[in-house]
Amino acid sequence: MPSAKVNPDLHNERKKCTFKNEDFTLWWIGGEAKLKEKRSREKFFLSEPEFFDKVPLHFVSHKEVYEESVRKATVIFRKVKQMQEQGKDGVENYMALLGGLLGSGILKEGNPLAVHFVMFLPALMGHGTPEQQAEWISRAWNCEIIGTYAQTELGHGTFIRGLETTATYDERTKEIVLESPTLSSYKWWPGGLGHTANYCVVIAQLYSKGVCHGIHPFIVQLRDEETHMPMPGITIGEIGNKLGMNGVNNGFLGFKNVRIPRTNMLMKNAQLLEDGTFVKPPSSVLTYGTMMFVRVVIVRDMANYLSKAVTIATRYSCVRRQSVINPDQPEVQVIDHLTQQYKLFPAIAKSIIFKLTSDNLWDMYNQVTSELDKGDLERLPELHAIACCLKAVCTADAAQAVETCRLACGGHGYMTCSNLFGTYGMVTAACTYEGENTVLLLQTARYLLKVWNQAQKGHELVPTVQYLKKFLSSNQRQTWDDSVPGIIAALQTVAAGKLRLASEHIEQRKRAGRTPEEAVNLTSIELARTADAHCRAFLVQSGYEMIEKSCKTAPPELARALRDIYELYAYDESMKVVGDLLMFTTISESDITRLQQKLEDALAAMRPNAVGIVDSFDIPDMVLGSALGAYDGNVYERLFDEAKKSPLNQEPVNKSFHLYLKPFMKSNL
C-alpha cells in the first residue's frame, strides 16, 4: 500500500490556496448540517467491509459484475433501513446513493435497483390515483417488489409516439391485453429489467372500442414473487455488455397475450372506464412528468461525475512532472503548462456551474409541480424546454470534459484504475438515455419558435425567455461589453438572433412550397444550434446569479475565488462562439484580443486555488476510486499496486507459454 505521506508537490499546492477549504465545502454541500450529514453517511457506508472489492471488477466476468452489483445494492438498502431506524431518514440518502458520488463509489458499474427508485416509484406517484398509490407504493418503497420503467423499444427511443407495444382493452373480461406485435416493439434498455425487477411500469399504445388513445402507463407483473420465474406470456432477458454501467442489468421484454386488470392502468391523468370509454387527461404533457424529473436529476449527476474527473486530473497534474519550460530549470509540474490549465480549469468551472444550475432547475421543477397539483399548467412548457436543453448540453459538455481530463493524464489516464474510463462510461451513457440530445435540443427549439411568435405579438413572456422582448425592441446590434452581465446579454442576443434567422428561414422554405414539417426539418441544424445557444446563456446567467447571491454571505477570500469561477466560465463560453458574437454584437478584433487575455488571466487566478477547489469537493478516496487522484498523491506507488492485482501477475509463467508460445518458438518457422 502507498505510505501515509502526502506527495510534496501536492502538499505545496495546498499551501497556495487563498481560501479556507472548509468554507468552500460548506458552501458546496449546503451548510453545516448537510455537511455533517454527508460525512456521517459516508463514514457509515464506506466503513462497511461488504463494500470492499477483493478483486477489481475489471478482472471479473460480466455475470460476476452483475451478481456483485446486486449483492452490494441489497446491502446498501439494508443499511439505508438501519439509518431510518436510527432516525436518519431523508431523501438525501437516496440521492447520494442512487445518482450521487457515494453510490458510484460503491457500485462502480451502476446500481441495478436505481431505476426502481428513480423511475418506478416516481411513476407510481406521478401517474397513480390515490387508490393505486395505496395499493402499490408501500410495497415498492419497502422493496417487497422491485420495479423498472419500460418505455424505450428496440425500434423506438426518443420518438415515444412511435412506440409499438399495444395495450388493448377487452370489455368482456375487463382486462387489458399487452402484445409485442413485432421484434422492434420489444422493450429494450430499461435498467434492472433483465433479471432484477419483478414488476414494471410499461408504456404502451392504449386501444379501446377500436380506437388508439396514444401512449399510457400500465403496471405489469414480470416475474413470480416467490420463484422469480417469468410470468406466462413474458419474454425477458438482459441485452448484453456495454461501454459502461454493466451492473445496471439493462433488459429486453416482450409480451404475448399478457392480461392485466383494467385497474393496472395508472389513471391519475387519463382514465379508462369499465365500458371502455377513454377520458382524456387535462394536458397531454402531464404524461412526461417522470421523464422531466429524471432530466433534472441527470443535470445534477453530470456535475457530480465531472467533479470526480477534475479532482483526479488536477491532483495528478500537480504530481506529474514532464518537460521543461526554461531549458536551465528542472522539469515542471504538468499543471504549470498553460495548455494543461486550459484543459482542466474550465472543466472545474463547468462542474460548479452545472451543480448550481441543477439546484436552480430543481427549484423550478418543485415550483411547477406544485402549480400542476393546483391545475396551473402555465409554466410546464417552460420547464420542459429548459430541462430538455440542459440535459442535452450538460451531458454533452460533461462527456467531453471527462474525456479531456483523461487525455490530460496521458497514458496513465488510459488505465482502468484511473477511473476516468469508468466515469466516462457513466457520463456518456447519459447523452443518450432519457432523450437523445439532438432530439431534445429540437424540442427546446420548437418551444422557442412558439415563444418567438408570442413575443412578436407583444405577449407576456416567462422568465427564461424574457430576453426576447429586449431583442425585439432593439433595432441595432447588441453593444459588446466584456463584463459577465455584458457577456450574458451578448449570449442571449446570440440566441435571439439565431432564433430570428431560423424562424425567417422556415417561413422562406414554406413560401417556396415546402410543408411546415419539411421546412422545420430543413432548418433543424439552425434550430438545434439556437436551443444550444439559449441553454448556454441560461447556464452562464444561472451560475453568475447564484454565485453572486452566495457572495453576499461568503468570506471575502471565498467570494473572490467563486467569482473567478464564473468569470472563467463566461470568458470560455464566449470565446467558443466568437463567430456568433461577431454576427450579432459589436465585438471587434481588439475586443476579442482583450477577451482572450481575460480568459488567460482567469486561468492564472484559478492556478493557486485549483487543488484547494477540488479538495473542497470533499470526495473520499474510495468514492474517487482512482490510483491517479487519491488525496495523498502517491500516484506511482498506487499504479504499481494496482498492476500487481492483475490475475496474470499471480503466477510467474502463464500456461499459454507451454501451450502455444513455446511450441511456436521451437517450430523453426
The amount of helix comes to: 55-70%
Radius of gyration of CA atoms, rounded to a whole number:
27 Å
Shape designation: globular
Largest sheet: 6 strands, mixed
Structural class, from secondary structure content? Answer: alpha+beta
Strand content: 5-15%
Give structural notes.
It is a single chain. 55% of the residues lie in helices and 8% in strands. It has 669 residues and is an alpha+beta fold. A hairpin with a 4-residue loop joins strand 2 and strand 3. Helix 2 crosses helix 21 and helix 13 crosses helix 17. It starts with 7 loop residues before the first helix and ends with a helix. The mean pLDDT is 94.
What's the layout of helices and strands?
Elements lengths: L7 H9 L4 H9 L2 H15 L15 H24 L5 H8 L2 H6 L7 H14 L2 H12 L5 E4 L15 E5 L4 E5 L7 E2 L10 E10 L2 E11 L12 E5 L12 E5 L2 E4 L9 E2 L5 E2 L9 H31 L18 H36 L6 H29 L11 H10 L7 H20 L10 H7 L10 H28 L4 H7 L1 H28 L4 H20 L2 H7 L4 H18 L3 H7 L4 H4 L10 H10 L10 H11 L4
Helix pairs in contact: 2-21, 7-8, 7-9, 9-10, 9-11, 9-12, 9-21, 10-11, 10-17, 10-18, 11-12, 11-13, 11-17, 13-17, 15-16, 15-17, 15-18, 15-19, 17-18, 18-20
